[in-house]
Each structure stands twice: as structure tokens, then as C-alpha cells.
Amino acid sequence: MTMITLQRAIVLTVQFDGSDLSSGVYFCRLQTEPAGEGVSGPVPEHGGQSILTTMMVLMK
After folding, report:
1. Which residues contact 45 (CB under 8 A, 6 or more apart)?
2. Would residue 41 count as lying in a domain?
3. Hey, how many other C-beta atoms are within 10 angstroms of the C-beta on 35?
4. Domain range holding 53?
5. Which of 7, 35, 43, 57 has the most CB within a 10 Å radius?
6. 18-52 confidence digits (pLDDT tens)
7. 3-state DSSP of 16-37
């Protein structure tokens, strides 16, 4: 028996306006929270939370 976990993908777009910021290195962090009620399946050991940090270089 093979267990398959299906997850829905959500695509979000954010417009960034750095006109008030100076040139430099910035870190962007995307943090998700566990899904609410009505979601089936086991909750991961870390509680379903994900954090992604990326580096952004702003040059003017």
C-alpha cells in the first residue's frame, strides 16, 4: 500500500516598492501557519509551519 499526501498549491504575487529604501542587502521572510479546520491528514512534527528566508540585493 502506498500513501499519497496531496497538497494544494497557492500562488501569491507581491509587488515590492523599494523607492523609500537605500541600496543594500535585505532579507525577505515568508512564514506560513498550519491549515485550519477541515484539512485532513496528519500534521507534521513541526506543526505545519514553514519559514523561507531569501536574500535580496537592492541597487539604485
Report:
1. none
2. no
3. 13
4. 22-35+47-60
5. 35
6. 999 999 999 999 887 776 554 555 555 556 678 88
7. CCCCCCCCEEEEEEEEECCCCC
Distance CA 16, CA 8 (A): 25
Residue with cell 494544494: 8
Rounded Cα distance between 32 and 47, Å, is 11
How many domains does one find in the chain?
1
Q: In the numeric block, which cell numbers belong to residue 7?
A: 497538497
Let me know: does 52 contact 29? Beta carbons within 8 Å: yes
5 within domain boundaries? no
> Is 60 part of a structural domain of the chain?
yes
